[in-house]
């Protein structure tokens, strides 16, 4: 990773890597256990694993920017979910938004990583459509 980015920028990248991974895991498990859809589960799993491979390659020291204790929103309460169906929708949104942030921040570090995050985001758009076509 470029030494030219600040710890604050690393914190933004780290937070969004975690945001994407967490969102993907929720919808992957939803697809696996609720929809019982092997193909969709595999597509989500591949994106999640691709995320971690890209992080390992392009952002090996990203955790150095982690500042959870200083996060001004760490104590904020998340909104309640009115219906169980709100869970995957919120998780898809979390992952897509995080990928967009990573795409933009990646432009500071590597056009390759930025392009990969964009590719993941557009794949997720298609997977989300498939998910809701299959969702009862």
Describe the protein:
The protein is mainly α and 136 residues long. It has one domain (7-67, 86-134). Helix content is 70%, strand content 0%. The protein has helices spanning 7-35, 38-58, 86-106, 111-134. Helix 3 (86-106) runs antiparallel to helix 4 (111-134). The radius of gyration is 15 Å and the shape is globular. The model has no long low-confidence stretch (mean pLDDT 90).
Q: Could you list the spans in which at least 5 consecutive residues all have pLDDT below 50?
A: none
Number of separate helices: 4
Give the overall form: globular
Largest beta-sheet characterization: none
Q: Number of folding domains?
A: 1
State the separation between the terminal residues, measured CA to CA.
43 Å
* Number of beta-strand segments: 0
Helical content (DSSP H or I, runs of 4+): 55-70%
User: H/E series, N to C?
Assistant: HHHH
The radius of gyration is 15 Å
Multimeric state: single chain
What is the typical, i.e. mean, pLDDT?
90
Share of residues in strands: under 5%
Secondary structure class reads mainly alpha
Which helices and strands, and how do they pair?
Layout: H1 7-35, H2 38-58, H3 86-106, H4 111-134
Keywords:
single chain; mainly alpha; globular
């Amino acid at each position: 990773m470029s030494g030219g980015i600040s710890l604050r920028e690393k914190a933004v990248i780290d937070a969004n890597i975690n945001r994407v991974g967490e969102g993907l895991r929720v919808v992957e498990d939803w697809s696996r256990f609720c929809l019982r859809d092997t193909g969709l589960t595999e597509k989500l799993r591949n994106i999640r694993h691709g995320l971690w491979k890209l992080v390992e390659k392009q952002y090996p020291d990203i955790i150095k920017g982690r500042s959870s204790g200083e996060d001004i929103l760490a104590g904020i309460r998340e909104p309640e979910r009115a219906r169980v169906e709100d869970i995957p929708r919120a998780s898809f949104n979390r992952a897509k938004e995080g990928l967009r942030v990573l795409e933009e921040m990646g432009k500071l570090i590597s056009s390759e990583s930025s392009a990969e995050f964009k590719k993941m985001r557009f794949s997720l758009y298609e997977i989300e459509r498939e998910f809701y076509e299959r969702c009862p």
